[in-house]
């Protein structure tokens, strides 16, 4: 089996690739498991060394739109496409045309390429919780269901929601076997701050664990909906393995999220790494960031995801202990328990 | 004031143009009324004679996508755009690429043209009840609200729903002052059958009134949601006159619809033109048409439209009497009352 991951060298794409390579096979859309012969990583950047070293990995580096226009991706040979590549929300707000090109045009080109390939590959589209946004004219419901109306409040969310519609119709037409999944805010992301409004939701844990100061720009009682990297990849993979009947409607599935508060996250950090860790958090409210964060939904009733056997992370402390275990090189404080 | 109507020579576009020209002015987006200097009709076909004869009418004939690519439309000079041009649902199902080009690409090009013009014109986008569709995997709610999740079951509906998203984001960015309105099934349409699944909802009245036989492919108890041509144009115009505050959210407004049944429509025909008329209806069920028609929603709670002062037609008999009054040349049977 050949698999394509766009954005395959990013944090989630690389983790998905590692998970697939480790399990060595994939049971696609309810079919029996097939051994993985090749994982194609399409990305602007080169793969991490461990992926580069795996003989089953093929890296195709470049701009996705150009790759698709030039026929550089082996779409006729892949049984599954995981479309994770995207310009992030901040970029899309700063450069409208970039977002339209990277998120809308490239998604449509990729779907067109699959349509021309003619064998209806499984197509997992990573949409986002950013399709939901609160506004004074249209309040979000208190609890988001799979059937709640998305009302995106930024271009990134609009482009993701349009992508869902394209995937749905290309699926209905039999051009692909589409699976729209909405990813929640991922925490704890390893690495460095990325400039997103949500960046602090990883940074306020990651930096103190590394012995560095971190800023928390919202009040402790701020509610957020999070998913660990591992649980997020689990949701993406389940979208690929579910049969059409298990998957159900062509509308998007909200992946499960742990609802917690920023204060509870800090308490979990204290349980894991002591007061020494939480003393490194600077609680400096930023009204603009707070407005963005509180405009996101924090409570979900993800019925379809639960029916697929998915679940939210059990606690933020569990998420944090996973991070510590998976990123020993990034943790400088002594860990308890 | 200069106004552009795409699809301006079609049935609804021409009626909108006549209404605007008759009132002679327009109070745009809550501003004081301004006299109408020019109404530009962009369409593949030439305008009806009465519109062609009006000195304020300018007709620009051709393919909308080509007109936009070639800069043939005076976007810099228009204060309002009514975007009615579209490939219809049957065409979009038969020719996927045609639908994507006519409904998605042309809408985006038109929005881009307005953005480049730089003065944020009012942009009324005629979306459609076709964004709603019932499927075994995702049932429609019994009553459709403005916040009900669209689940389009055909490419036309998907393309219209994507258009709504584009209009919403171009509005949020300040490129246009967008107004997404969802048109209901229009009945009684004058003219000839048009091959749409809904065509009989006009034909079963129009043809008998002209003394011709007509087929009704669904059972009398089939519920439908309809709007007269006059009421539909009233809704489109109200979208243009509403201030941003009156309009509210950037999501679409469902225009009011009269919920009736096909049997009640036949009874109204009998009250208007006697048993002689209803004897001309052939009740010949067609399972395929019935499946499409019963997949459409028939009950709406159009809160936003009602708050804007719009209302459904009062009865199907009133719709029918309007048709008879407006189309005397098409009525051959004697009319009662």
Structural commentary:
The structure is a homodimer of 337-residue chains. By secondary structure, chain A is α/β, with parallel strands linked by helices. Chain A folds into 2 domains: 2-185 and 227-254, NAD(P)-binding Rossmann-like Domain (Rossmann fold, 3-Layer(aba) Sandwich), CATH 3.40.50; 197-225 and 257-299 and 314-330, Alpha-Beta Complex (UDP-galactose 4-epimerase, domain 1). Helix content of chain A is 41%, strand content 18%. Chain A is built from 13 helices and 16 strands. Chain A has helices at residues 11-23, 49-52, 64-69, 89-94, 96-117, 155-172, 200-209, 229-241, 244-247, 262-278, 287-294, 303-307, 316-326, and strands spanning 2-6, 25-26, 34-35, 38-43, 57-61, 80-83, 122-128, 144-145, 177-183, 185-186, 214-216, 223-227, 253-254, 258-261, 281-283, 300-301. Chain A has a 7-stranded parallel sheet with strand order 5-4-1-6-7-9-13, with helices on both faces. A 3-stranded mixed sheet of chain A has the order 10-12-14. In chain A, helix 5 runs parallel beside helix 6 (155-172) and helix 10 packs across helix 13 (316-326). The longest helix of chain A is centred in the first third of the chain and has 22 residues, at 96-117. Chain A is globular and about 55 Å long.
Keywords:
homodimer; 337 residues; 13 helices; 2 domains; Rossmann fold; alpha/beta; UDP-galactose 4-epimerase, domain 1; seven-stranded parallel β-sheet
- Regarding quaternary structure, what we see is homodimer
Q: Mind telling me which CATH architecture of the largest domain in chain A this is?
A: 3-Layer(aba) Sandwich
For the largest interface, the chains and their residue counts are: A-B, 25 and 25 residues
Coarse shape of chain A:
globular
State the CATH class of the largest domain in chain A. Answer: Alpha Beta
For the biggest β-sheet of chain A, the strand order reads: 5-4-1-6-7-9-13
Flag low-confidence runs of chain A: none
Major sheet attributes of chain A: 7 strands, parallel
What is the percent of helical residues of chain A?
40-55%
Q: Give the H and E element order of chain A.
A: EHEEEHEHEHHEEHEEHEEHHEEHEHEHH
């Amino acid at each position: 089996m050949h698999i394509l991951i766009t954005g395959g060298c990013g944090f989630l794409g690389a983790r998905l690739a590692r998970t697939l390579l480790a399990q060595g096979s994939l049971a696609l859309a309810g079919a029996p498991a097939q051994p993985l012969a090749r994982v194609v990583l399409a990305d602007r950047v080169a793969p991490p060394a461990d992926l580069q070293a795996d003989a089953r990995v093929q890296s195709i580096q470049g701009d996705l739109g150009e790759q698709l226009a030039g026929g550089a991706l082996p779409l006729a040979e892949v049984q599954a496409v995981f479309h994770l590549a995207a310009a992030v929300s901040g970029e899309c707000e700063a450069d409208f045309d970039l977002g339209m090109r990277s998120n809308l045009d490239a998604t449509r080109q990729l779907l067109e390429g699959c349509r021309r390939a003619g064998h209806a590959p499984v197509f997992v589209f990573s949409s986002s919780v950013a399709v939901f946004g609160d506004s004074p004219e249209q309040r979000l419901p208190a609890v988001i269901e799979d059937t709640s109306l998305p009302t995106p409040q930024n271009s990134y969310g609009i482009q993701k929601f349009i992508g869902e519609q394209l995937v749905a119709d290309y699926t209905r037409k039999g051009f692909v076997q589409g699976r729209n999944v909405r990813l929640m805010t991922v925490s704890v992301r390893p690495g460095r701050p990325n400039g997103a409004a949500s960046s602090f939701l990883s940074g306020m844990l990651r930096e103190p664990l590394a012995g560095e100061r971190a800023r928390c720009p919202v009040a402790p009682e701020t509610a957020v909906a999070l998913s660990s990297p591992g649980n997020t990849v689990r949701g993406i993979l389940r979208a690929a393995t579910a049969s059409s009947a298990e998957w159900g409607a062509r509308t998007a599935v909200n992946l499960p999220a742990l609802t917690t508060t920023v204060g509870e996250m800090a308490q979990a950090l204290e349980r894991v790494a002591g007061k020494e860790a939480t003393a490194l958090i600077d609680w400096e409210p930023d009204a603009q960031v707070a407005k963005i964060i509180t405009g996101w939904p924090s409570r979900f009733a993800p019925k379809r995801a639960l029916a697929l056997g998915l679940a939210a992370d059990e606690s933020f402390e569990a998420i944090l202990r996973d991070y510590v275990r998976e990123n020993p090189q990034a943790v400088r404080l002594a860990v308890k328990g």
